[in-house]
Write a structure and sequence with these properties.
There is one protein chain. The protein is α/β, with parallel strands linked by helices and 120 residues long. The chain has a four-stranded parallel sheet. Helix 2 links the parallel strand 2 and strand 3. It is globular, with a radius of gyration of 14 Å. The protein starts with a strand and ends in a 19-residue tail after the last helix. The model has no long low-confidence stretch (mean pLDDT 87).
Length: 120
């Protein structure tokens, strides 16, 4: 186990949650921050072993100071992986961030995410 909580933002993602939880939970606790899903996201997350939290209303983007302040009391580890349910992390990356989380050398890690959403 690592010193990481995987904080993943979701909205109506019941089909992806179980796979992502299985991928992440051996590396740390998985928390899904929900934006009022109307599908079975909550049930799937909890039955998969993840924690499901409804996030406060606000802008559709989540990279705000207010969201960080809401998230911090939910987190039980010194490290947070802040991502989205469609961020599937390869095993090599999970192993590397686990290794980093167990050291006292680094405070922040930037992981570039590549997407085909825009055709690149």
């Amino acid at each position: 186990m690592s010193n990481i909580n995987f904080l993943m933002f979701v909205f109506n993602e019941e089909k992806r949650i179980a796979v992502l939880t299985r991928n992440l939970k051996k590396y740390g606790q998985v928390l899904f921050m929900d934006d009022d899903s109307t599908d079975n996201s909550k049930e799937v997350a909890e039955s998969s072993g993840a924690k499901f939290i409804r996030r406060p209303k606000g802008p559709t983007y989540v990279e705000t100071q207010e969201m960080l302040e809401f998230v911090e009391p939910q987190v039980t580890t010194p490290w947070i992986f802040w991502g989205y349910v469609d961020n599937f992390l390869p095993k090599t990356l999970l192993q590397k961030i686990t290794e980093i989380s167990l050291q006292d050398k680094i405070k922040y890690v930037y992981v570039p995410i590549f997407t085909y959403l825009w055709g690149d």
